[in-house]
């Protein structure tokens, strides 16, 4: 079903191009495996099975990993009420609503489509945001579901795991296999497979990061247009980014593996000399870029700036 979230042709094109390029990359990768290894089929079968499981059960896996629990309206009436209004405005099915008991203020969407999706917020986020800011964040997350980029980023991210599986499988088969000897040719094959796997992983990583940064800007745009209050989303971004930077690093380490799915990444800004390098590896655009875009949208909508609004 088509929602009322504004279609983003740029996002759709980038998702298609990313999946196409990743597909070509992995076809070439499998071709190399066919040449170098006789047991490549097992690796591909295992990876395909894991990919299928992650695609079909991505919502449950993500909620479990981030300690999210499904909550009913009686327990969180305000949260359910905001999501109900946004889903009615966007003309889309209501996702499962979940809460994670974490101090880190954040939110994420997961699921393979609008009929099998979940929106999870942390208790730290609920304590910090006012109703308008919460609405902006939830509209951002719902747009990920409506645009189906959650499913695309899930599939794209998992493809990189195949390269890691190949490295491990090759090591185990060569070190613990029954070949009986480790001649020079075996060593060359092993090193070649590992080098190719590393190159495939690196290229996949960069492609996925580029898509991830764009999809966050697209979700900011769609969420701001749906609510008509980009200043509220900008206020939430500024507040949450600053608060996350104050949380001890040790408390963010487990969350960083899920940065691609979060509303805002679980780390602070890089020092000046590392900003360019970090931007290439980041799952999100910079706070400045996101606020600049929301400022332009606010001007287009003729929205009066909120008192004391940053940026």
TrEMBL record:
Record organism: Streptomyces liliifuscus
Enzyme class: hydrolase
Known cofactor(s): Zn(2+)
GO biological process terms, semicolon-separated: proteolysis
The UniProt record lists the keyword Cell membrane: yes
Record's bilayer topology term: Multi-pass membrane protein
Binding site for Zn(2+): 140, 144, 216
Annotated Peptidase M48 domain residues: 77-295
Name of the protein: Protease HtpX homolog
Keyword flag Manganese: no
Entry GO CC: plasma membrane
UniProt KW keywords: Cell membrane, Hydrolase, Membrane, Metal-binding, Metalloprotease, Protease, Transmembrane, Transmembrane helix, Zinc
Active site positions: 141
PANTHER family registered for this protein in UniProt: PROTEASE HTPX, PROTEASE HTPX HOMOLOG
Main localisation: membrane
Family matches, as InterPro entries: HtpX_protease, Pept_M48_protease_HtpX, Peptidase_M48
